[in-house]
Amino acid sequence: MAIEGILKAFKEGRLDLDEAKTQISSSYFEEIEGTTIDHSRQARTGQAEVIFAQSKTTPQVLSAFKRIADNGNNVLATRVREEAGEALQAEFPDLAYSETANLASLVINEPERLTTPIGVITAGTSDLSVAEEAALTAEFYGSPVLRINDVGVAGIHRLFARLEEIKTCRTLVVVAGMEGALPSVVGGLVAKPVIAVPTSIGYGASFNGLAALLGMLNSCASGVSVVNIDNGFGAGFQAHRINQL
Amino acid sequence: MAIEGILKAFKEGRLDLDEAKTQISSSYFEEIEGTTIDHSRQARTGQAEVIFAQSKTTPQVLSAFKRIADNGNNVLATRVREEAGEALQAEFPDLAYSETANLASLVINEPERLTTPIGVITAGTSDLSVAEEAALTAEFYGSPVLRINDVGVAGIHRLFARLEEIKTCRTLVVVAGMEGALPSVVGGLVAKPVIAVPTSIGYGASFNGLAALLGMLNSCASGVSVVNIDNGFGAGFQAHRINQL
Amino acid sequence: MAIEGILKAFKEGRLDLDEAKTQISSSYFEEIEGTTIDHSRQARTGQAEVIFAQSKTTPQVLSAFKRIADNGNNVLATRVREEAGEALQAEFPDLAYSETANLASLVINEPERLTTPIGVITAGTSDLSVAEEAALTAEFYGSPVLRINDVGVAGIHRLFARLEEIKTCRTLVVVAGMEGALPSVVGGLVAKPVIAVPTSIGYGASFNGLAALLGMLNSCASGVSVVNIDNGFGAGFQAHRINQL
Amino acid sequence: MAIEGILKAFKEGRLDLDEAKTQISSSYFEEIEGTTIDHSRQARTGQAEVIFAQSKTTPQVLSAFKRIADNGNNVLATRVREEAGEALQAEFPDLAYSETANLASLVINEPERLTTPIGVITAGTSDLSVAEEAALTAEFYGSPVLRINDVGVAGIHRLFARLEEIKTCRTLVVVAGMEGALPSVVGGLVAKPVIAVPTSIGYGASFNGLAALLGMLNSCASGVSVVNIDNGFGAGFQAHRINQL
Amino acid sequence: MAIEGILKAFKEGRLDLDEAKTQISSSYFEEIEGTTIDHSRQARTGQAEVIFAQSKTTPQVLSAFKRIADNGNNVLATRVREEAGEALQAEFPDLAYSETANLASLVINEPERLTTPIGVITAGTSDLSVAEEAALTAEFYGSPVLRINDVGVAGIHRLFARLEEIKTCRTLVVVAGMEGALPSVVGGLVAKPVIAVPTSIGYGASFNGLAALLGMLNSCASGVSVVNIDNGFGAGFQAHRINQL
Amino acid sequence: MAIEGILKAFKEGRLDLDEAKTQISSSYFEEIEGTTIDHSRQARTGQAEVIFAQSKTTPQVLSAFKRIADNGNNVLATRVREEAGEALQAEFPDLAYSETANLASLVINEPERLTTPIGVITAGTSDLSVAEEAALTAEFYGSPVLRINDVGVAGIHRLFARLEEIKTCRTLVVVAGMEGALPSVVGGLVAKPVIAVPTSIGYGASFNGLAALLGMLNSCASGVSVVNIDNGFGAGFQAHRINQL
Amino acid sequence: MAIEGILKAFKEGRLDLDEAKTQISSSYFEEIEGTTIDHSRQARTGQAEVIFAQSKTTPQVLSAFKRIADNGNNVLATRVREEAGEALQAEFPDLAYSETANLASLVINEPERLTTPIGVITAGTSDLSVAEEAALTAEFYGSPVLRINDVGVAGIHRLFARLEEIKTCRTLVVVAGMEGALPSVVGGLVAKPVIAVPTSIGYGASFNGLAALLGMLNSCASGVSVVNIDNGFGAGFQAHRINQL
Amino acid sequence: MAIEGILKAFKEGRLDLDEAKTQISSSYFEEIEGTTIDHSRQARTGQAEVIFAQSKTTPQVLSAFKRIADNGNNVLATRVREEAGEALQAEFPDLAYSETANLASLVINEPERLTTPIGVITAGTSDLSVAEEAALTAEFYGSPVLRINDVGVAGIHRLFARLEEIKTCRTLVVVAGMEGALPSVVGGLVAKPVIAVPTSIGYGASFNGLAALLGMLNSCASGVSVVNIDNGFGAGFQAHRINQL
Fold this sequence. Notes:
The structure is a homooctamer.
Chain A: H1 2-11, H2 17-28, E1 29-32, E2 35-38, H3 41-45, E3 49-52, H4 58-70, E4 75-78, H5 82-91, E5 96-98, E6 103-106, E7 118-122, H6 128-141, E8 145-148, H7 157-160, H8 163-167, E9 171-176, H9 182-189, E10 194-198, H10 210-217, E11 224-226, H11 232-244
Parallel strand pairs in A: 3-4, 7-8, 7-9, 9-10, 10-11
Antiparallel strand pairs in A: 1-2, 4-6, 5-6
Helix pairs in contact in A: 1-2, 4-5, 6-11
């Protein structure tokens, strides 16, 4: 829209070619201390701005968060260490911070709330942190989440006991470390898209999640696609994007 | 349903417990020369039986194909070498065989035809074989497919020229070898679920598709999930499953 | 025993120290064209001599086979290509050769026949070649074998339909390629030792069986130990050794 | 048994179909703070509940431990750090905690005590921690253990000096880091099943136990199967399971 | 030059052969506590002496720095931790230290200042540290630098908005972690040599920068060459060397 | 330029917005059997269209080659097998085909011929094929090439004997397999940009060029950047691009 | 010798067979807290007992050290952290401890002092720690050592300046990190056995010494053999063993 | 010597500086079709010229062989396929060609024959090809060789039976595939330098010799150094070089 205005101005001669190009660019970007905050992303891709806080100091996280919120946009920050989480809560009383998932979220504009649930399923309790990152991400964007925990393949009757619940979901995030076999079993039982998340839970020849990742990529079940090791955010986002369709 | 019948018979005493269990099992399975053909899969997961022909001889492929078709079910076979493809065509006049994708399909019961298209996008012409496996799989299950070829990131204007078409799709399969960067660019431009397929196209440090696989797993764009290297079938199936929602 | 004889002779002065040592050694070895055939292995470890034929020419296989058989010992040869298999059958009318398993065996002294069965279970029909190597190995040494085929985790109800049979076995060999998840599921359901065999079935990120191998090593089920990729012989041998206890 | 009761009640009309299914499920599970404690595992697989404490906080370990013990079941916890170990000891006076193995165990119901010993053999003193995890696990389940330490292949006469003792065992756990050669040598000398445990002892090209793991998987001796790097628990459990036969 | 003097002296008989050789050597080297400071490097390769401070203590860094500076040469030190940086600043008031890049530089002889700029472009703000190492290195040697930050491929319009600026540069350093796709896109848009720098930014299957490294090596764009993971210095140096031509 | 014409037409009302966009796109592309031939690449990036023939059939190579040549553009094709090379020569009498480098080139518009040479240096004669790909590529684009062969580091005096020649080059391509050490030595002796090309020459732990690749990426010499294993084309192109500056 | 005594006693009837075997064993071993100290190793292999202290606590190191020294044997301990080094020095006034090499040695019986020197050569000063481990090990066993530091291939004239000295050595230990190219160059210049030691010095694609290790294994120079990454002890020991011949 | 003549001529004015340099260079090299034959190598490093024939055509091998022989030097060629071997034998009646080792050698000047033997020991008969490459190389240079075959660690009594013979050797080459454990055992028993050669014999997780390579690098025995996978030549050469001392 803004661009149409600029183009009209260009056609009507109120802007020359160079001015037109400059205005188009500046309507998109504002560069702050080396970070190009992308205010139009929400419009362009339907995605709120997300801060990947892993390699950022607490002041950097705070400042990035503030800038987006001050523009009236919702903000999600992943891999927020406890210290930064507390600083954010002090600054934004309405902000939600999860210690389990190291995730901070601030909802300024209530998103459209979908009614079909996403299932977030874990193989073991050690996978909870990654699963919560997925679940809270999906909820932040507007999807309800059904959580099913600790139903790994070594005690597969636990999975069967929850199968009817799982079948009520529209799409599934399945989180597992070690051998990462759960998505294959779920994918064979439920005719819904499965987003598989390998976790770095394990030791020795798990090689920090490589074993689970390879297992999921080689799944003999159809309807399984995979995100990066420990990438709960990516799985929750993809599940919500599918749920939106 | 059948199971309800058996359970009723059990309750009414026409079956004892062991007979009940045996009948339930046998209603599901028929074992032929070491292959448990799973006739009820279509009902259970909404998926026709698929034959992975890579390590099978031509007679084995023919015999597995025949058994399923004779039960009146649709059949899809992937990684069918030309020789086996010709043998199948001789046996089943209505069978379609694609040399590009090494894929054979026989439709006996017309599937529900969806109206929303899936986009199948390749980075280079060398990725066509995998992309066709994805496209033909999606079409076999009932999704229309829009093919966009050779729009890799080294000539990114080619992608932009097709962007409006791409945005008409409901979900996207993006196929790329070498550095595998195309899904990230597409994922940043289009707010649709992207199923990324790394291919083994490349040489040297591509390590038979590992470079592309790792690139896609580490995508900085959200809404990208990944299937195995060269797994066009998996991507096409997952895209259709999402399209069905 | 022989050694006791030598030692007595040494004590009684019929042998001096050096002669004693020489006789002990020579009772063990006979070197033929670079291969130290180990005729006493059967006594020492309870294991017939096994020929690993992978990197041997047909004449080399024949000659090694003959030498052992001529000493009146049972022989097993693995990874015997068809050509060598036929040459062996021409030479030894009583020899059994399996094309599926590429395994040749000649029983001269009937082994002790055990009564408790070993279960050999495969995830898919493509795993049959490795599974047969395991099954025929166990049978060669004297264990009965129960074969359960094509019960992989993507259609897990097929496994449940066979569970009662599986529980009758004393120990289990579980063979799977791709993500290699079947041993975890079996190990969680049956309280028997599971010998897991990863196979090189798969493509792309299966990395010739690495994915299945890592999956099995990281099994979340207890009671699972693992042999090398495609090592059906090793699994069959280990299962029989356990069955012997 | 319980299930038979439920089925009878179903047949006699005291339960309808849905109630029957719910009761079966609930007789198995009780979900506590995200952990599905599996009280029936002991019956189903002959295995006490095991807690993998590596990624759990001290309160989480305590609470999981307590819940199982309060049900009157034996408990084993592996990878218990000293702090958690002390907390457990304060709570359960009868609990045994090994600093060497980081293992806590509480025996409430004395297990059946077997009389045939399991041998636990190490290549070097640095492997003791993993070996003790194996030995204490086997003892917890009821197997007597013979410990043979520091008999690695670089001083192989030390192994020969203990060979007669080793031959008295029914099955062997062999623990080694660095090149991981000890299981091959033991497997060639003793006709008993060998469970090989690679350890992460070493540096440089040991790649945290990968060298030992690959060495053991490629063992030229028959009768060797392998568990994950540093997985003393898995080896001790598998050895006991074999010993039970 | 010095060498010509020595050779003349040799010819004129003022030196014998051995003396000549010794003098030539000693004019080049001076060994200080195990470090052969190479005072003639600047003449020989046009490169000031560079200290790689990663595995050096603060006193070692100070002493190496002092020795070079005392000879009147410019000094650059990379991977200088903050503590060492402060110690250097206390000793050399004219020294510049960057906390972002962990780089210390002391210019004694003003280098030739080139007028054509080098572009240093990052995919994300987390790549800034490596990019600054490149930029400050290039500036130290005499190249002006244009910095373009946070224009990664997931928001590719940000790159387009800066394209005209980028095209003014003579050579480009492109810094990216995760999937490392930015150099391919830049290389396809701008006909200038691209030096690609993978960074270790990411997690899981980024394997500490391996994914980005492989991506860049497999770039489908021409005109891209690659340096080691996180090697900002190497990229800045190579870009300056090209800029000097 | 063309775009300016379109924009003017848009401003003057001869085109509406949609028509303008369509015309811009179509001036760039022409899609032929799945390959988007990019006729404007030469203008945009200064690079003739290059065909990567590795995974293409002879007819596909011929047809792609013809299409470009028919547009009056120079063509370069890499990894052209002998059969395809002969077919090309039959079709295009002026085409040059190198069996050593598997490279076909057709010059229709004589490129600007530069006068400063590029040095192409090999460690061993087995590296010649890759080196010729680099040299012929550079010559195709207009750079003269000085070839220096077989001067690997195990006989380093051979390198010194050619050093004065090497110093006359403006930039250097250094090609080596096995340990890949030559670029480090050259980079330490000559103050020119070095493009290092690892080759797959070697065996065992060379892992098809991985050893050489890692060696070059870790070069202790400054001024070395690296291309993919066996990527002679990429190195020759990059060297020419630098030479053009 | 002792064994001859035992055998005579056996022959003369003063020992029965079992007693004879027991005495032979016990003359070799004494088990102390899980460590089989091997007092006869010095006689058997010419090697003093060596303690690998990496995974041992200070009390464990002290106790192992004491036990050997109390038997009147020389002791060498590698990877001794400073704390343990100080404790050893407090206990053994004659002990030498090197902070650079983390090596402690105590000479009780002066070894035979050889006169031919071993050369220990490093590529960079960061390799000194590993090189000192090699040099001090060789000196401990009796070889004189010539140390040549910081002569890596990026400044190869530094190596040439020391070449005559190097040629006076009987065997060479060459220590290098990063690309590990120095052993190839030295091996091409000097006709002496080269023991190459890769170090973990480097970052990024050095993968903790893997790049240097692969480089050295693929050396194009003959007469180069390799030890583990950072294994200065192994190289010094091997060089001394060769020097002893 | 020649160089002294040139220097004298330079001093006496019969040569100017440039002429002197040219003459020195040309006395060393003669370039033939891209291969710099290094006629002075024998003098400089005591090593005859060796041809690595793996990637060379039969005519190329013949021509390289001829050129060296025509200069009156001994020649060794490794990895000579049978066809090339026969062509060489036709050309040089005195040439020896081994089909087992794929090695061709021509002795024109009888080397100095040493009297101390080198032991070449294999784990299995499949390792014979690599072992023969080592043995024939050592013999070519003048060392007598003692061959000990098929004494791998799974039947370790076979090794003990040959131990006295092995101890008569001055240095040992130990060749093993699969887990590569033999060098550790030999190194613990014999106080001689061991050159370990991993072979690519094995399958699955042997990863073409990687398992054996890692095992040998991590050997717990001292006095073991390692060459590349399948590098029999390198081991034989290194053993001879040590034997020469």
